[in-house]
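Hey L., structure's done. Input below.
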Amino acid sequence: MPGLYLHVPFCQSKCGYCDFYSVTDLALMDEWVEAVLAEMEMYRDGFEAFDTIYFGGGTPSLLPARQIERILSHAEKTFHLFSHAEITLEANPGDLDRSHLSMLKRVGVNRIVLGIQSFDEAILTFLGRRHRAKEGYFAMLQAREAGFENVGLDLIYGIPGQDEASWRRTLEQALAFSPEHISCYELTLGAETPLGKRRKAGAFELPEETLQYDLFMKTAQCLEGAGYVQYEVSNFAKEPWTFSRHNQKYWDHTPYLGLGPSAHSFLGGKRWWNHRSLPRYLTDVKKGRPPVEGSETLTIEELRLEALFLGLRTRRGVDLERFRREYGYDLMGERGELLARLENEGLISIRDGLLVPTRAGMAVADRLALM
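Output:
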């Protein structure tokens, strides 16, 4: 079943590491909402139904609840929205209070992801986060008080000056609130981000690869020891129902529609993306044109490599028979010798027709598919 993504391109300030498209001028927020509603109409015939909606950004928590309600209501009128749909909103802890969270819950948001990133004030300052550690604590408590039963936390590791002990403290602080979902991302810096430019100028260095590897392995050990399942390289959840249903669509070529500037879509082997510019996006929509900047139709070879690359990032791995059937390629027949070597090295496991990465394999998942 397809998923619907809405890119909310507004931030009060830009974090130093973030490479996602956003603007800090909030004056066009209402105009953006009208454009998203109009863009929905352009895809009425291309997508019939959704069982997930994801508000990403940017900072979706800057949107008033009434605007989120308008968007959800229009989506329900334009497409078929399943009654059990997962509706996720990413939030900056500094934007939240009990009243706002309660309104979000009332208008239909049933899964909230808090951009905690760290409980260390020095790290929050380094990253350019505008919330403080205590606001992260309050946001988690107030999300529970508002009735959210599916709460996710985003954390970042591999930050200059961070060692195993300080990262362990962050994980323990997160676990104290028993969130349903925890995402742990290794810090990566785009060349044009503020921190990327500082790094290039020699202001700091990222931790060495051996420490990054150790942090990854200790993260998995800590969270799995606390009862979480590592169902994807960066994602941990308590129960299967708390796996991010929306994000899983990106990993197995399920169709998805992306609305808003810079949003990506995928359907039937074709991928397209919107203008990475709010003014250009708004101009096209006002003129009744899909605000598409570019597109590509993937070859069977490209789809096959993507499926292998993405599958080896997940706990469920690659179904070898399904892979052969869908992509016309017998992995065991064509790459059996290599797969045997990777299995001997402890990077993959082959059982019951599944090619599954081990924990050590997940640590180098981005390279496994290219071996």
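The mean pLDDT is 96. The radius of gyration is 21 Å.

-- N.
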